[in-house]
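Troubleshooting: if your tokenizer reports a length mismatch, compare your output against this known-good record of 228 residues.
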Amino acid sequence: MDTWILDAARQAGAIIIENSLVTGFQVKVDGVSVNAKTHRGNETFKAKMLVGADGTNSIVANILHGQPPPRTNRTIGVRAYFENVAGPADRADMHFTSQSFPGYCWLFPTGTGQANVGVGVLLETLPKSNRPKDLFNELINSDQGLKERLRNAKVIGKLEAWPINTYDPNIPIVADRVILAGEAAGLVNPVNGEGIQYALLSGRWAAQTAQVSLKTGDFSQKALQTYS
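Known-good structure output:
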């Protein structure tokens, strides 16, 4: 999907600059200056407005808010891909346990005999004595449903962990000349942590809002508020 979106952006006239990292931005009267490290070195790009769609560890959001998101708004996800998974390939499993609640464990088939297996928990309820990866291993070895489906399974690749921000209506997702989209805005399903649908929808709405502002010349927070 990432490749498809990238190709669609290119075809629409976007200039793609890869292997780059945004390090900061400054909102000015006539636009936004965006600082970045690129393959050419440190560069500054100027634009009418900035859409921060840089994920759960969003640099744009952290600068906009002056700090990282609070722990109360964060969950942690750990997952691995398995092969030789038993059971039906068309059934996704969700397991709620005392160790993970109010989070859950999942097994999502990704093909014949393969599955995405993981656990998501609230960061503030994760025992300090537990690393997320330790909790993952504990759950897949103690939950009878998961044990049955993974009895002959083997891990493909490596175990990965990542944070997920949840939406907080008290934290702004627009400012003068700036919009946050997707996980940068905390737009995920609060029940299961899924974010792709919300990323696509918020990306479309951000683009529509930007179109209006480009026509009117009004990039104020009040004008962009229609997005949120």
